Amino acid sequence: MRIGMQASYAGDFHQTAAEVRDLESAGLDVVLCAEVYTFDAVSQLGYLAAVTERVELMSAILPIYSRTPALIAMTAAGLDLVSGGRFTLGLGASGPQVVEGWHGVPYDAPLQRTREVVEICRQVWRRDRLVHDGPKYTVPLPPDQGTGLGKPLKLINTPVRERVPVLLAALGPKNVELAAEIAEKWEPIFFLPERAADVWGAPLAAGRAKRDPALGELDVVAGVPVAIGEDVDHLVDAVRPALALYVGGMGARGRNFYNDLARRYGFEAEAETVQELYLAGRKEEAAAAVPDDLVRLTSLIGPESYVAERIAAFAEAGVTTLTLQPLDDTREGRLRTVETMRRLC
Questions:
Q1: Among candidates 88, 81, 91, 64, which has minimal Cα distance to 164?
Q2: Structure pTM?
Q3: Beta-carbon contacts of residue 314 (< 8 Å; ≥ 6 apart)
Q4: Which of 20, 32, 292, 345 could hold 6 in an S-S bridge, CB 3.0 to 4.6 Å?
């Protein structure tokens, strides 16, 4: 079991980078940089590449809509170069509120676009002349859509690796099936080990049945709030607001992927209540309505012996990398959490 942590996109990133160096020394395996409507993840990953030595660097995630496929491929190859082959390209569809509200482009055909983006990236990394004719992307651009001067090109530089690992963030059955088929890594959210097989078992099996053996085993990267100690049970309540935000407010009614996930876990009535309260502006009541089992079983909160048991449950359910979200929100606390988790893992 590997352990990772997301670099904070709030505050002074120079301090964040200094902390990442300490966490790397403490045994952290992976550092992830998010890109929502924040500063971009790429500049921060490049900075981290320069100040770290061993830790894997991962975008989690770059939205597939905000860059052309070729630019995504160029960026990944560049980050892999400056990090000495330590980069993983984390991609995802994001959601219509961000894609249309921030980037101003239509949120259409996420599955097809994801498949084509990955295909194009791997062409670029192999230094093939880029020719792609798909339902969503045609490269070079046909004469009737442009000047007619476009021609097939190949990447000038030679990448460090012919295939940069790809992580796909995916929740819905078809998206998860695609991740298991074409990606090296899959990132779910709010992973609940005891119910994961019921929710994701079939699509994972369907995707693995079509998987190229050259991709290796699927690395499952799951985020977990963490608090380890004898007197940390009160921190369960600290997890509720984030769950309420996602289940209740991250999307409109009928278009909230996280609410759908809670329902598929078996919390149908509770998910509806949380959403109704959150969208009505009653956020504290929405947080209080988040089911206790959903909080506890998707977190690592308790004494060392209990956390060790839960780590084993995540491993048994197929998780290979735990992305830690320490609830002791101090630099010292995060360092202790990584040291303890390294020992328990």
A1: 88
A2: 0.95
A3: 1, 191, 193, 222, 224, 322
A4: 32
**C-alpha separations of 283 from 263, 265, 290 in Å:** 19, 22, 11
Report the C-alpha gap between 184 and 167 in whole angstroms.
6
* Residue 310: partners with Cβ closer than 8 Å, 6 or more residues away: 193, 300, 302
The residues facing 220 across adjacent strands are 186
Q: Is the dihedral of CA 166, 30, 52, 48 positive or negative?
A: positive
Amino acid at 248: G
For helices 268-279 and 236-244, angle between their N-to-C axes, nearest 10 degrees: 70
In terms of Cβ atoms closer than 10 Å to its own Cβ (0-12, 13-18, 19+), residue 122 is middle
| Residue corresponding to tokens 């996930």 | 261
pLDDT tens digits in sequence order for the chain, 345 residues long: 999 999 998 889 999 999 999 999 999 999 999 999 999 999 999 999 999 999 999 999 999 999 999 999 999 999 999 999 999 999 999 988 899 999 999 999 999 999 999 999 999 999 999 999 999 999 999 999 999 999 999 999 999 999 999 999 999 999 999 999 999 999 999 999 999 999 999 999 999 999 999 999 999 999 999 999 999 999 999 999 999 999 999 878 888 989 999 999 999 999 999 999 999 999 999 999 999 999 999 999 999 999 999 999 999 999 999 999 999 989 999 999 999 999 999
Q: What is the amino acid identity at position 52?
A: T
CA distance 345 to 343: 6
